[in-house]
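Entry 14: structure prediction run for OmpH family outer membrane protein. Input pasted below.
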Amino acid sequence: MNTKVLFLLLTAVTLQVVSAQRGVRIGYVDMDYILENVSEYQMANELLEKKVAKWKQEIEQQQLAIAQMKEDLDNERILLTNELIEEREVEIQALESEVLDYQQDRFGPQGDLVRQRSQLVQPIQDQVFNAVQELAAGRKYDFIFDRSADVVMLFADKRYDISEQILRTIDITRKKDQREGKPSALDAFQEIDPELKARQDAYDDKKSERDSIIESKREAKLKEIEERKKAYEERRRKMLEEREAKRKAAEEKKKKENGEENSEESAETGTEENQ
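Run finished. Output C-alpha cells:
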C-alpha cells in the first residue's frame, strides 16, 4: 500500500517537473480578423446587407406613404365629414403602429437582423472552434484565447497570434468538404429560415391586402371628391343662372320703367305744343 502511494507521489512530482520545464504554451486568435478573411463570411455578409437595405427601403416607403396620407388629410379636411376624418386618422394610426411593429420584427433585440447575424457567424465560429481544437491538440497548447472576445488582453505579442494558422486549417477543411460534397457555411446561411420566411410571407400578404384596401379607399375618395366637385359646380351654375336671370329681369324692369317715363314725357310735350 505504501509502495503504491509513494509511486503516485513520485509520478505527480515528475509530471509537475516536466510541465515546469516545458512551460505553459499560450496562443490567441483574432476572430474579427478571421471573419474578414473568410470569403464565405464576406459573401454571406453581403447577402445580409442587401436584405437589410431592402428592409430599410420598405420602412421608408411606408413612412413616406403615411406622410402622404397625413398631407392629403390636411388638404381635404375641409371637404370631409367628421366621420370620414376620424376614419382616416384611425387608419393612419394603424399604419404607424404597423410600421413600428415591422421595425421591431426586423431590427429589434429579437428581430431578423440579430437572428441572421447569428446564423451568419455561427458556422464560421464552429469552424474556428474545430480548427482551434485540432491545432491545440496537435501542438500541445495549454490556453488559446479569443482576442476579440470579452477577455481583457492589455498586451498580446504578435508571435502568439495563431489566426493565420487557423485560417489555413479552415481553408484546408473547406476544400476537403467541397471534394466530399458537404454544404459550406454560405450554403448554411442561404438555407431558408422557416420563421423568417413565415414572417416575410405574413408581411407580404398584409402589405398586399393593405395596398388593395388603400387603393379601393383612394378610388372611393376620388369618386367622392369628384361628386362633391360636380355638386359644387352644379350649385355654382344654378347660382350664376339665377343671378343672370335677376340681372336680366332688373334690366327689363328698368327698360320698361324708362319706356313709361319716355311715353309720359312725350305726352306732356305734345300737350304743351297744342296749347
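Notes: The helical segments are 2-22, 31-36, 39-76, 82-107, 112-139, 163-180, 185-190, 194-274. Will compare against the previous run tomorrow.
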